[in-house]
Design a protein that fits this description.
With about 260 residues, the chain is mainly alpha-helical. The protein is built from nine helices and no strands.
Length: about 260
């Protein structure tokens, strides 16, 4: 099951790897250190510290994006077993994945200017809406085929492993397709525009108050958004954990029976 989807999803993983390499190539720990040193050389300015907070949050956002997508790919490879599903490998899908990586790397360097950051963050949030729509379309087919396959296997005999895989499929269906991921990204996009409006006023008036408001809006948007999706992931993982344990136990019993 795992080998099949990994083989068929080679292009997706390759595109994601390009995105990761793009981020790692453009962003390093030295950038964070140099920015902290630069700010320490200036007189106290609340806007500079708001910028530094956003810079760190953006770095955390990139790390979470990497870890979460890696985890979710592994879960899909483990629990799904579609009959004849062909993972997307066209130019559009590859461009979207690489584009997200490019925008994330650009956010790091755009943090110095709330107007530039707001523009890129708004584009990033808008692209994510379409990325999730594409993902949902593909997963709907993949999950449906996997569910039908497990139901067909159960018709031919009561197999504990098939029951566990069916339960795992339903948990993934709840997380990927029933949760409001698109709505979450739409709200992120809306608040990114709110922050962009503050940044525009900052650019026009030169008042640091609007710049700070823009930085705070972007920072709070990232924090709240990650808390929401983090809670969804925790529920998913909590529900999958006992299935994982039971599946390992069933597999162990099966191997012991075969050896005896």
């Amino acid at each position: 099951m795992t080998r099949y989807l990994k083989k068929r999803s080679k292009q997706i993983r390759k595109a994601r790897q390009w995105a990761i390499e793009l981020i790692l190539a453009s962003v390093g720990i030295t950038h964070f250190i140099s920015e902290i040193q630069r700010i320490q050389e200036h007189p106290y300015d609340l806007m500079l510290y708001a910028y530094l907070a956003l810079l760190l949050l953006t770095g955390i956002l990139i790390i979470l994006w990497y870890l979460a997508t890696e985890k979710e790919l592994d879960l899909l490879f483990k629990w799904l077993n579609p009959q004849s599903y062909d993972p997307p490998s066209d130019l559009t899908t590859t461009s979207v994945i690489v584009g997200v990586g490019l925008l994330l790397s650009m956010l790091i360097f755009a943090s110095r200017n709330p107007l530039v950051y707001g523009s890129i963050f708004s584009i990033y949030s808008f692209v994510l809406i379409f990325e999730v729509r594409i993902l949902n379309r593909e997963l709907e087919s993949c999950i449906s085929q996997s569910r039908n396959r497990q139901l067909e296997l159960l018709k031919n005999g009561q197999n504990q492993k098939d029951k566990l895989y069916l339960e795992g499929i339903e948990i993934l269906n709840l997380y990927f397709l029933k949760r409001h991921h698109v709505l979450r990204n739409i709200l992120v996009f809306i608040f990114s525009l709110v922050g962009l409006v503050f940044a525009i006023y900052w650019g026009i008036s030169g008042l640091s108050l609007f710049g700070i408001a823009a930085y705070l809006t972007f920072s709070l948007t990232i924090i709240v958004s990650e808390i929401v999706i983090g809670s969804w992931r925790n529920i998913r993982n909590k529900n999958l954990r006992p299935l994982d344990d039971e599946l390992r136990e069933v597999t162990r019993e099966t191997k012991s029976s075969a050896l005896s």
